[in-house]
User: Which sequence fits this backbone?
DNA sequence: TCCGTCGTGGGAACCGGTTGCTACCGGCGT
DNA sequence: ACGCCGGTAGCAACCGGTTCCCACGACGGA
């Protein structure tokens, strides 16, 4: 009989006070918990609260100085597995630290990004986390620098998570992982197995994540004194469909290669089925490797060798580092390591001379 | 030289007013946009705004009646592909409709769910969307009913998205999709190919999504006058690892079956590699089907036949329906259809007599 | 020239909370 | 019996906005 009445108007602290026969301040104090209140008063207040099903308005609390802090993260598309893992890490750590979590998808549109950051600043978010690579142009650096400054001047903090750092001095926390290093190690492994012509299925040509991995690909070659054929690096985006399309195209074009390294496991997945469709066996006819180590990589056939990225950890660190940052302290820049996980998709390279795949 | 000074204290509307030499109300009005203000006044206000890099506090606006509405969604784990797609739909539609989006992961803990809903009520969220199946116990119905009521009495609205409906009369919007029907059609297809002993790799035994699919499995059998062996339905959870483990176990136990239907594509993926590891060929030795049609399903080898669920649409509808709901109107209950997409993973069944897989 | 009106801007109340300061109460010591 | 003190509760100011209502100045028409 606790009558949660259908009064469509939420009740205020004054309603509770009136019903309990005390003042609003007393209600506030009972609910606050620390201030000494007699048991009788507390009882009647609590009863009124229960009867009215009252919850204090979080926005009002926030404005008055109490209130749950909020943290925002902005990403391109939650649907990409690596984004999802970062988001998960962010969300977990945020709630562990007692923060609420606002999320926005930009769908890759820079204007949305700007709008969102502005909204988050209006929300007085404790930190705004920008997730995922992007085109690292002067325009990017300037725009982002401006965001960082205005966030900082509002007492908030910008975090770049898996995104290129700004010029020194920008009030920004950067958490990256080693795209180039991971790709270098991975490609070195492929090269060590005897492959000489390895196709690289990259991402968008200006995207930092893609670029980092591409640099690793190149570096691994050069470290062996090899000079990769420019025709062997292709660009698409980080989707399964792009991988599929690029691979078909490469095959149709008669490109010669004995192994393919995809910039992403998703891309690798698409490439793998294109290979299968062409009647090629992996790794017997051609080897394949990915990047990200999403859970599915194990279930591709053959199981995909790839490089593991601690995405969830990345997200967790992003929020922890951002929230621990004290205004005066130096800006942090973390670079997380990656490691390649060898599975079954890369086999030995061809014997003497390259093979026509 | 626009001096975005490092003054760590965000400026208030009064600061802007002072700098522009007008009153706070005037600033509010020029920022509001509608009220007539002379060009000169507007100019100086805007300049002050720019110089101070001022953004109005969204919480204060909200409390005063203006302000961006917010919408919250609560799910178990953003990392599951189907959750991610629903989340994406929710987020897109929410921002399209000018709402901010709060997200919480419960990690499957009911207490978290309660806490979150309470927080969202405090945030005065326009709607709270609970995403994903759960155990449909009397406790669930009562608890959720209570949430619905208290949300409703606060002028907000509870939405159940892919989650079992409550008893009639609860102020709730329900958007479901047809788990049972999809599974029925899928299993009917498997049966039609001549399979008679089909293993079902289900989810948690009390989970509504899992249960719905299991009912479909059963119903498809009965519709053919078949009586499935109870030993053929196994329970785990909706992860790749569960699928892998269950499949190994089934194989180790010497269960007889010629096809396996997994409650989820993730489960199917794990099962597939277990099958491969055991040296079994799909679909030659055993057929396999999944549920969800995640993008990866196409890249499994063989490509997985599965049932497509319009997850993103589900999320979009959830927010649209919730936000369009007017307090007096009847509660809506939508049931979205699914369809099976036939690919390569289920082949013809065995000849006379079951095969030992 | 005088008055009505329109265009503008300011004052103050209000949104729903929190909290510093003050006042009242009863109980205790001497 | 009186004064002091500690424990409680209320008043009012404040957080950062919005908006109702009113006043003031300039302008045009009679």
Assistant:
């Amino acid at each position: 009989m606790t009558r949660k009445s259908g009064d469509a108007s939420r009740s205020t602290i004054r309603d509770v006070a009136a019903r309990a026969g005390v003042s609003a301040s007393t209600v506030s104090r009972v609910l606050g918990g620390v201030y000494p209140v007699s048991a009788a008063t507390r009882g009647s207040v609590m009863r009124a609260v229960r009867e009215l099903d009252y919850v204090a308005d979080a926005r009002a609390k926030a404005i008055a100085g109490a209130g749950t802090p909020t943290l925002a993260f902005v990403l391109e598309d939650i649907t990409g597995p690596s984004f999802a893992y970062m988001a998960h890490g962010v969300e977990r750590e945020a709630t562990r630290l007692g923060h609420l979590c606002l999320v926005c998808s930009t769908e890759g549109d820079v204007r949305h990004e700007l709008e969102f950051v502005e909204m988050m600043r209006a929300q007085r978010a404790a930190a705004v986390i920008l997730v995922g690579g992007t085109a690292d142009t002067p325009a990017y650096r300037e725009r982002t620098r401006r965001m960082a400054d205005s966030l900082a001047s509002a007492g908030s903090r910008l975090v770049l998570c898996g995104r290129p750092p700004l010029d020194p001095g920008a009030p920004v926390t950067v958490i990256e992982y080693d795209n180039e290093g991971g790709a270098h190690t991975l490609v070195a492994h492929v090269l060590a197995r005897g492959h000489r012509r390895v196709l690289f299925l990259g991402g968008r040509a200006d995207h930092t994540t893609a670029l980092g991995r591409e640099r690793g690909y190149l570096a691994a070659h050069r470290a062996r004194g090899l000079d990769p054929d420019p025709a062997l690096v292709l660009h698409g985006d980080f989707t399964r469909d792009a991988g599929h399309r690029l691979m078909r195209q490469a095959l149709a074009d008669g490109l010669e290669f004995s192994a393919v390294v995809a910039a992403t496991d998703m891309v690798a997945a698409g490439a793998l089925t294109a290979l299968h469709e062409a009647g090629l066996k992996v790794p017997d006819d051609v080897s394949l490797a990915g990047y990200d180590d999403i859970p599915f990589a194990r279930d591709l056939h053959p199981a995909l060798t790839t490089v593991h990225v601690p995405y969830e950890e990345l997200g967790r660190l992003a929020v922890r580092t951002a929230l621990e940052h004290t205004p005066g302290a130096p800006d942090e820049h973390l670079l997380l390591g990656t490691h390649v996980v060898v599975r079954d998709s890369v086999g030995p390279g061809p014997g003497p001379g390259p093979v026509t795949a």
